[in-house]
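Quick illustration for those who missed Monday's session on complexes.
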Amino acid sequence: MGLFGSFLSKFSRAKASIEDLDEFRRVLIESDLGVNVADQIIETVKREKAENLESAVTETLKSFLSTQDRTISISSGKLTTILIVGVNGTGKTTSAAKLAHHFKANGKKVLLVAADTFRAAAVEQLLTWGKRIGVEVVQGAENADPAAVCFDGATRALKDGYEILIIDTAGRLHTKSNLMDELGKVRRVVEKVTPIDEVLFVLDGTTGQNGISQAQVFSESVPLTGMIVTKIDGSTRGGVAIATEKALAVPLKFVGTGEGIEDFRPFDPESYIRELLT
Amino acid sequence: MFEGLSNKFSDVFGALRKKGRITESDIDATCEELRVALLEADVALSVVEKFVERIRQRSLEILPVIRQSTQQSQEIYGVINQELIAILGGAARRIRYAKQPPTIIMLAGLQGSGKTTLAGKLARFLKEDGNTPLLVAADLQRPNAVTQLSVLAESINVPIFAPEPGNGVGDPVRVSRDAVEYAREKLYNVVIVDTAGRLGVDAELMKQASDIRDAVKPDETLFVVDAMIGQDAVRTAQAFSEGVGFDGVVLTKLDGDAKGGAALSIAELTGKPILFTSIGEKLSDFDYFYPDRMASRILGMGDIQTLAEQAKKALDGDSAKRLEEKFVSGEDFTLEDFLEQMQAMKKMGSMTKILGMLPGANNAAMKKQIDAIDDKELVRTQAIVQSMTPEERRNPKVLNGSRRSRIARGSGRTVTEVNSLVDRFSAAQKVMKQMRSGGGMPKGMALPPGMGMPAAPRIAAAPKKKSRSGNPAKRAADEGR
Ligand SMILES: Nc1nc2c(ncn2[C@@H]2O[C@H](COP(=O)(O)OP(=O)(O)OP(=O)(O)O)[C@@H](O)[C@H]2O)c(=O)[nH]1
Ligand SMILES: Nc1nc2c(ncn2[C@@H]2O[C@H](COP(=O)(O)OP(=O)(O)OP(=O)(O)O)[C@@H](O)[C@H]2O)c(=O)[nH]1
Ligand SMILES: [Mg+2]
Ligand SMILES: [Mg+2]
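Prediction with magnesium ion bound:
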């Protein structure tokens, strides 16, 4: 049983002492929920009777989460455009491929756009994925303007009757305003051709409190419609995802659980919280 | 957002001074501030607790001294800072070369932490130092990891040993072993082995890493860790320490605004030195690790030195100088110059966020000026100019209707906006010409004054103070940085 679990069962046996609560607070902090969120949970625990502690904690965590739809709405006969964004190395390209695979498996006609024209072999990386999953990838000339590649991709998606367009962008730190502006430009250029339905922010599940400011700053350049939290197959507890959703009210939509194409599932608050708590 | 600790301390101690005497409970209160600050910086909880307790003890010890001091907060801050630096830099050292070349460096870390990029950076750095490095592509897992390393190797003209295509094909242990053999034969004196990203909990891949280690017997195994990592830093560092064992640490992505508390956790828990930092995506964005800078960064005091260096880089004097020369020599001022100038200003703009890290950045006058830089307008203009062909930038007269609408499409702006930019540019050009015939510009002024007019950022009136320029870019240039 995980740390959370042992605490919760301890609490349901006897009334929690101050020391127990301190211990519990530690566990919450060690899951990257952050000091504030941890304190709020402790407050709840103090208020609740020991019997329903577990559900009290679960409910508190759930109440932090958005009530928005966590699915990607697709209207048939119309192009759905998805922009993938995030800081460096979080798993954008892999997630773009996983998403493409997911839609393809559902019988959709999917097009990928390799708009990371900056990082060494980023285009090739997506091309490899495209080949593996049998999805077409639009690429530009070397060092092409990413917005231009996206323009081509969007134009082609419309012309050739694709149903899903997934754009993989370069990793960028939110502190680089020129790169954030570049993202704004990508968005504007694509929207000249076709509306963007989803902007998914990819959050590395091992990230600490910085994740919140990342998402905040990204949302200023491109309004985020959802988040993907990756790498939670490791030893991280991934609490920052909850803290970020709480701060921004942008719903988590998918979870990355490995490097393979199938290691991907829709975000389910219940099970995510359960895993966090056990 | 996050106030510097010194501010909080000043508040705490300011109140105390009125009260007269610092007590133990005042120290406890201070320690609580410290605790929260460290946790917000992602220092591992167990490390925070130990560290804060140590500070509490030390502070109590020097309580009599503090009481007499007029700078009580400074005294405590000094204690904290010293302790931090001691942990962060306690084991500091440079890279260890093998007595018998080649020196073998193996990189290991989580997925996406920056290993491959670091391999390129290290190779570049060591090469400049007179070595003959060989890069080894031993990540045969991640799609196109081999291509990525090859592209980097080529960009710095460093040879690469990449006998296997990767993407799941080839044995990384064998490649690594062969690489060392190859390096001996060809007399490369440093071998840098890039390995696949792996999770601490992945027993199979950790085993692969230790097999690579056993095959190459590295002189330095470097654990590459993302500065943004949270509490998991401890578990991961421990897993790598047990699974592969490492001799040093490299902290990456420090160009962001993460406080990088992992540095403290890892240094404290493993006792291993942090050797280098990675501070950007370019291969030149690489530096030694400075414990004092890291200490003030973790404490939220702003990494002032790195900041100063970034500012210097952003405000690279070259382009300003070139423009000035152009101006004086009477050459035509083109849209290309205009763009270059704007990009310099833009970099200044991006500095506004970093400047916010400085303790003094709350300073009202400074803030006002920083806020007045209109980022959006800069971006729009930049997008338009970038969508022009080089010829159009040099000679905007060729911009007919169809060209203008193409530019509007390419930049995602309207034709009206394109027209207005061209008009403003022409006006600026005219002013420049007049000024030149009117006797040039004051000496030492880096930017042609016409620049400030059209699309350059609108700067709030500078507080009238001697002749300091209200334009931060200009001022920095004036003051010789
Ligand atoms: N364990 C694990 N690894 C992942 C997951 N998602 C991605 N990765 C790995 O993380 C590394 C980085 O993934 P990428 O998809 O290249 O990340 P990115 O965000 O596109 O990176 P940049 O484009 O360089 O910013 C790769 O080694 C991936 O295999 C995940 O859910 N779990
Ligand atoms: N901003 C910034 N980006 C960095 C830095 N170091 C690496 N990156 C970026 O982070 C991403 C991942 O870097 P890689 O070098 O591919 O990471 P890796 O550890 O080799 O990844 P895997 O092989 O997939 O495990 C890329 O987009 C790099 O450009 C840094 O110091 N600052
Ligand atoms: Mg990518
Ligand atoms: Mg790599």
